[in-house]
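Figure 2 data, in text form.
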Amino acid sequence: MTGNNQNTGRVLGVNGNMVSVQFEGNVSMNEICYVKVGNTSLKSEVIRIRGTIAQVQVYEMTNGIQCGDEVTFTGDMLTAQLGPGLLGQIYDGLQNPLPLLAEQAGWFLERGIYTNALDDQKKWEFTPSAKPGDTVKAGQYVGTVPEGSFVHKILVPFYLLGNYTVKSVAQKGEYTIKETIAVIVDDRGNEIPLTMSFKWPVKRAVTCYTERLAPTETMETKVRLIDSFFPVAKGGTYCIPGPFGAGKTVLQHTTSKYADVDIVIVAA
């Protein structure tokens, strides 16, 4: 999940948020890189590769970038951090907590400032469900952690292939997302420590399931017009069409507030 080698390159040209970079070595699609502007490094993503030239999309204003500026490729994909602490947060498109950014840079955010998506100092109450000797695989869980009214299942990371044997599991208690809460062993005897969080590439589909279930139940939105005439399938998808000022957003907020769901995610 993490690249071992960091390649570098040089800026060849800038067109809006698209920067052309001449590089050496190996560079992958969707790899994260940083374009250096003075003392600031701007986070970017490789979106096209042609020979030894990569086009990267810069997630910040590109003012000040010049031909010849250094670019560092990290070897990592664009990832999301998964684990306790996600609920109630306000993130930007790169999963930077906006309240924390405001504390560091003020309400007029500066470019080139990036923070951890989850608080690695806060302790969460972990309750084990697996026990030594159990066989687990990606997507199965070894314990649970409550966050508000929701209960997180601490999963074996999706990128671990095959079956693993649980060697040890932490006792019930409070731990940070960095602390080891279980150790699993593969068929070669290699030990893999598990924590409450892991990272997953945002553009890679999760495939560790046996069957994708078709929706069979009705989701109660508590809006009588929808539930009576336009029922929504639990686990399905629906849309609210209409012109400007028709009340689409108001209806979405009402649905989110009263519907029979565990978590509401608002993308603005």
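Caption note: The radius of gyration is 22 Å.
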